[in-house]
Amino acid sequence: MNDLGRIHRILDANLDRAREGLRVIEEWYRFGLNQSSLAESCKNYRQELARWHRPEFWAARDTAGDVGTELTHPQETQRDDILSLLKANFCRTQEALRVLEEYGKLVDVNLSQAMKQLRYQIYQLESELFANQRQQKLEQAYLYLITMPCPNLFNTVEAALQSGLTLVQYRDKPQTDNNRYEIAQKLCTLCHQYNALFIINDRVDIALAVSADGVHLGQQDMPLPTARKLLGHQRIIGCSTTNPDELERAILGGADYVGVGPVYATPTKAGKPPAGWDYVAYVAQTWHKPWFAIGGIDLSNCETVLGAGVQRIAIVRAIMDAENPGATTQQFLQQLQAK
């Protein structure tokens, strides 16, 4: 086989790889999410690839002589969850398109350019999928655990996750950056094992470094529009708010959720007065995305908070300091579900 035949063989294999990866993704859009428009996009992309699959590429195929058919990697034999499966197939598709773009330059510049444009479209499709998945999880989350430094941090968080928690924020302001990164990385892995969202407090850089699901910003942190430019639209951004002006900035900045409080005085926000029930009522009437009441909420006053029109709560000490964080998490979830 001459060089042209070898190039045709490479193009044939990667056209197949890209179509196969897209078909796996399409099935989830169609049957998993009932997203007809996104499933149709995948189908159209597959048909576009088929249009470039020329007879001479097919003719160069040599499956029996392919030395790579027996090659595998342990990571390919098992997927942890649906997101890891989808990520693997997006990577498979994107890598194949890059190969097609480069080797296509040797055969047909139009093929190369078409594969380049298609690769960018697949990047956008991936962003839409993971943004959609995260937003759905956020909509379904009613209990939000915000960590604080403690000796049994990982055990405490895992106990809460085992009890049904689906949203965790890592908050540890005194920590050094090296330790903060290592802890965040471990917590992110732990949360994703339980199919829970993982948010980083304040630090956009660490959120990106550990592939967290988003970041939570205080009023003195990086401006929300800047954080959005860095994180993109596929990750979640939340904001702390204590009054209508701060809420208005969150709305204009495109926050995905807000924290509302402190509802009660709390040592977590030392010296900060409660936001007041009038502000809680204002948020309930004004904000149409998820919002979480925070500040001094525990099992003894949770019913009062929920009775004031609150549907979602963020908890720190009541779970982090609990003798049995798993049982405490279950009790909070039961009270929330009762409403």
UniProtKB/TrEMBL annotation:
Mind listing the GO molecular function terms for this protein? magnesium ion binding; thiamine-phosphate diphosphorylase activity
Tell me the keywords, alphabetical order.
Magnesium, Metal-binding, Thiamine biosynthesis, Transferase
Q: What is this protein called?
A: Thiamine-phosphate synthase
Binding locations of 4-amino-2-methyl-5-(diphosphooxymethyl)pyrimidine: Q169, Y170, R171, D172, K173, N201, S240, K269
Cite the annotated pathway.
Answer: Cofactor biosynthesis; thiamine diphosphate biosynthesis; thiamine phosphate from 4-amino-2-methyl-5-diphosphomethylpyrimidine and 4-methyl-5-(2-phosphoethyl)-thiazole: step 1/1
Q: Which organism is it from?
A: Gloeomargarita lithophora Alchichica-D10
Q: What is its EC number?
A: 2.5.1.3
Q: Which GO terms describe its cellular component?
A: cytoplasm
Substrates-to-products reaction catalysed: 4-methyl-5-(2-phosphooxyethyl)-thiazole + 4-amino-2-methyl-5-(diphosphooxymethyl)pyrimidine + H(+) = thiamine phosphate + diphosphate; 2-(2-carboxy-4-methylthiazol-5-yl)ethyl phosphate + 4-amino-2-methyl-5-(diphosphooxymethyl)pyrimidine + 2 H(+) = thiamine phosphate + CO2 + diphosphate; 2-[(2R,5Z)-2-carboxy-4-methylthiazol-5(2H)-ylidene]ethyl phosphate + 4-amino-2-methyl-5-(diphosphooxymethyl)pyrimidine + 2 H(+) = thiamine phosphate + CO2 + diphosphate
The residue ranges of the Thiamine phosphate synthase/TenI domain are 143-319
Which family does the record assign? Belongs to the thiamine-phosphate synthase family.
In the UniProt record, the gene name given for this protein reads thiE
Which lineage is the organism of this entry classified under, starting from the top rank?
Bacteria, Bacillati, Cyanobacteriota, Cyanophyceae, Gloeomargaritales
Instruction: Give any single GO term for biological process.
Output: thiamine diphosphate biosynthetic process
